[in-house]
Amino acid sequence: MNNFNLGEVLTTSWKIIWKHKVLWVFGILASFARGGGGGSAGGGNSGYQTGSGDAPFSTEQFERGIQQAAQFFEQNLWIIIAGVVIIILLSFLLYAAGMMGRIGLIKGVYKVETGAERLSFGELWSESRPYFWRIFGMNFLIRLAFVLIFIPLAIFGFVTMGIGFICILPLLCILVPISWVIAVVMEQAQPAIVLENLGILDGLKRGWQIVKTNAIPIIILAIVLAVGGVMIGIIIALPLILSLLPIFIGMNTLNESFTLVYIALACCALYLPVIIFLNGILTAYIKSAWTLTYLRLAKPTESAAVVAVNA
Known about the structure:
By secondary structure, this protein is mainly alpha-helical. 79% of the residues lie in helices and 0% in strands. The model is unreliable at 35-57 and 301-311 (pLDDT under 50).
């Protein structure tokens, strides 16, 4: 096992991204493919009920709402299809940008470690393009595999009215650490593909070899980055949470006025560029730490490095 200094990796990662702030741009791009899901909260009351009873709306109102929704979908089917296609395309573009961001960070950290005093966005972008489809393909295939595993399990759980979830709970407990190990292997496979000019399968093999040989330092690093990333992420998201808090406090007044909702949405819109920017710096730091870990543990040969630079 190589001599691995966790403190040196963490401090050097910060020094690199602080000195070469172009890596923040690639961090922002990489954050688009971190796998975090977006949430949407919707709720609305159609007014007060004039009839008797405690229910907020009657069965007739519910059925009428369903009929109106079905009519809306029927009348605007092509608009809905076009909207779905646009969303899919935007998702693909953002995910592709995320892959380029990851590659750019790997290339940038490597160039700094090999003596580069200055990094330019155009140079890193052009040097990252040859590896795009390999990095994209590896991440896509891994995610697709997990989707194909979890969808049947979820359907089984819903069909059995929740009883299936109890039956598959031990399997889920096994899949969680497996998914964590795969994620760590991918963090080492990506720089292996970029810096040693490997294919997808060879990159995964190389990543697994590094993780298996250096399990203890990599586990410690993964825990430190995960815990630290969650804590900093919560701090970054705290203003967003606070902006939504008045809505929950004044929930009873929403029937009379949506002022609190409008104010909260405006605050969220104003803070969104800030949270994207700060999350990009955090992503740049985490990915830089993983790249430095690869460089410290794998020590790619000079010939492989030359091939990667010339690719």
